[in-house]
Structure formats: C-alpha cells, structure tokens
Amino acid sequence: MSTKVTLDRIDEAMRGHGIEIARDDTRNLGQANINGFNVAFALLSSVVIVRADAATEIPSDDADATFYLAANQVNSASFGARAVIVDKLDNLIVRTERELPLAAGLDDEQLSAALKSAVDAVLATQDAMVAITQNINEAFREEQAD
Fold it and tell me: How far apart are CA 9 and CA 141, in angstroms?
C-alpha cells in the first residue's frame, strides 16, 4: 500500500542502503556525503529532489564555457539526471539532480528503489560531466596544437 513520503521514511530508506543522512527537519532536507559528493534529498509537496554537488576550482566569473558545454551535452542525452552549473558562489559548482514524483505516495520498497536509482543517476551524471569535460578540453588542446 502506498503511503505518504516523509523525511523519516527517506532517512530509513537510505539507512537501508548504508547511508546516513544529516537532517534539517525545518527545511525538509537531508544531506549525505556519498562517494565524495554532497548529496541532498529535498522533500517538497509532490516530489523529492535528489541532488549531487561537486565544487570546482573555477571562479564563477571565469569566461571558460567548458562546464556549460558539458552540461548541455549531458542534458541532450539520457543519463537519468540533469546537469546544471551553479555560478552564484565564488567558484562554479557542477550540480546534477533528479526529481522523484511522489504525489500518489510510495510503499517502502518503491521508495527505496526510487531513491537508489536517483542517487545512482546523479552520481553517474557527475561521472559523465567529468568525462565530457575532459573530452572537450582534449579537443580544444588538439585544435590549438594544429
């Protein structure tokens, strides 16, 4: 039977995958460090947003468009999550995220599987961002060498 998704249930489901989340109950938010990424679980009224952030050393005011081009390529393909570049802090952040619809509720097994799939997707999309960024940089270096 499907039941309402709560932060308690998200916390319990992630513990079932061996992941402890640090909770902020006032904001319906949980966070965990997974494979070196800050992963957030934001519970909204009709969705859970699973988001992975990777800090960079690139200043936000840098004119290099490599990360933006990589995010565009990722978002043109089907990686199971979308990528955005956050430029509101001193350095750029590569953010990947996936939304899980939950308006109809989910049973424990569905919630656990959906969260695992979402975490896997945002981490795989982070890996794709690294690979695509490297490919763009290599192509640029080769073009400069010619």
Answer: 48
